[in-house]
Amino acid sequence: MATEPIFKITPIGGLGEIGKNMTLFEMNGDGFLIDCGIMFPANDMHGVDYIIPDFRWLEERDDIVLHGCCYTHGHEDHIGAVQHLVQAFPDLPLFATPLTRGLLQVKLKNARLLKGTDLRSFDAGDELRIGPFKLHSFHVCHSIPDCVGFGIETPLGMVVHTGDYKFDNTPVHGRKTDYARLASFARRGITLLLADSTNADKSGWTQSEAVIGEALDRVFRNATGRIMVATFASLISRVQQVVNVARIHKRKVCITGYTMSEYAKIARKLGYLDAEGDILVDIGRAQSLPPHKVVFMVTGSQGEPSAVLGKLAAGRHRQLDIRRGDTIILSSHPIPGNEEMVYRTINRLIERGADVIYDAIEAVHVSGHACQEEMRLMLNLTQPKYLVPVHGEIRHLHLHAKLARENGIARDNVITIENGTTIELSKNGIAIGERMPGGYVFVDGSGVGDVGPAVIRDREILARDGFMLVSINIDHATGKLIDEPRIISRGFVYLKAAEDFLDQIRENVTAVVNSNHNVNGNRRHLVEDSLGKLIYSETKRRPMIFSIVNEI
User: Which of 93, 171, 406, 414 has the fewest CB within 10 Å, making it most exposed?
Assistant: First the structure.
């Protein structure tokens, strides 16, 4: 007797957060993935470079054959973890539109994984065969060219994944969201829609990318010195808009930062960046041009200390510096959680004499995601039976669900879940299945996953309260102190200015050791516990306390 088909969907990342988007689709032991991106660390994740989805449980499964990973577009939150995916699944084919494929090539080349990786191209509108699965790609507008969503054929009806989208009728690259394909899916009947929720808390419609060109023109017209435009390395549409305005104002464009330069080269080679003639110059030539004749494209719009703008704000860039009269444009919105770093960077740039323009002052950035009215349009175009909001923090998912119910979808047919929760489609409808293990996998330098929550907590304590080390020499025969305890402190108190307090600490340590001279093996814990209570009582702080007991 044939087994009834069950189509399973497991979001591995991207639900309950902004970033590290990744979703598993499976049926009868076969599966494929959509996207595998990164997430930027929060302010309290000290030392972490970025975060990737936790797909270790998928590596351990021997009951599923993965047939490929399909990418919706080339932003870091969708492709940024590709090297980790290829290391885990070296034979996995990767499917992407031409520009996204080019950006994947750059990342894999940098990771020395390009050779041997099975990269396959398709164009928006193509049908894909991935193992036993048939996918229909469709073009969507976003803030980068070559974005797609997917319609997935299943025995239980069509499943549609929108990817990141908005309805922009005047896009920079001229190709609009494919209304007709979405409507054709609706005519066939859409069982389940997985839809972007990022702007579910914003009313109305997202502005067109076209308004940015007008805002950039105003800024360029008023700028008398150098201009620096900060944006994401993969935001090719924004690079094109800057090139277009620079032509009008007779400025040369210098693209700085390795990743942005490599992405621009690929985009130009593939025809997604029109920068003909000698409008693009290297940094050496740019430095020799008059200030009113040059514009620099830089990374670091999220306040990242290691990016070009972060180094400029700190005065640490090897080739560039901030001069009085420079105009700096931040062409991006702060990612939730990054606001503090972004505004700190803005303040430092202003202190150095720059005129800083950001979206609160001029329309130099618009979102690439649908607002509420566009979400309603997507629901009306597709008319799904079930909706699972994806791509957003918990508040975004629940607001999207509320909007869908207001739009006529039955309450029980709108499912809000978090990462790792499996949804099962069967002839009986939709059900929530088991929860897969997973969470944050931190990438710290060359280490992947070896830094966990406990290490992050320790780093947070060290950053907040510092540490104190007490070294004690004890007579082996008597168990009493031989000499005065030695104290080393970093990030807690300035030793030279705290002699009275340090005397208290020495007296405390001496009393604990001498009153417990018959205790074997536990002196270190007694000292640390007593010091912790004393320090908190006096300072209301909890530095990390370490003690070294040397028996002589």
Answer: 406
For 330-476, where are the alpha helices, taking DSSP H only?
Answer: 339-351, 372-382, 394-406, 453-465
Whose tokens are 């990022």? That residue is 198
Q: Is there a contact between 40 and 102 (Cβ–Cβ < 8 Å)?
A: no
Alpha carbon of residue 536 to chain centroid: 37
At 48 the pLDDT is 66
| DSSP label at residue 533 | H
E-strand stretches of 224-277 = 227-230, 252-255
Query: 250 pairs with which residues across the strands?
Result: none
Q: Report the half-sphere exposure of 98 (CA within 13 A, side-chain side).
A: 13
E strand map for 282-439: 294-298, 327-330, 355-357, 386-390, 421-426, 429-435
Torsion sign (Cα): 122, 127, 128, 129: negative
pLDDT over 80 (residue 22): yes
Q: Is the pLDDT of residue 68 over 50?
A: yes
CA 206 – CA 167 distance, rounded (Å): 8
| CA distances to 208, 212, 270, 430 from 297, in Å | 22, 15, 20, 48
Quick one: tokens of 199? Answer: 């702007």
The pLDDT value given to residue 375? 97
Amino acid at 373: E
The arrangement of strands across the sheet holding 327-330 comes to: 252-255, 294-298, 227-230, 327-330, 355-357
pTM of the prediction? 0.82
Of 228, 220, 276, 215, nearest to 255 (Cα)? 228
Q: What is the pLDDT of residues 181-193, one digit of tens each?
A: 999 999 999 999 9
Taking only the tens place, the pLDDT of each residue in 438-460 is: 777 777 655 564 555 666 666 66
Largest Cα–Cα distance in the chain? Answer: 90
User: Residues 84-111: what's their mean pLDDT?
Assistant: 95
Q: Tokens 């191209």 belong to which residue? A: 121
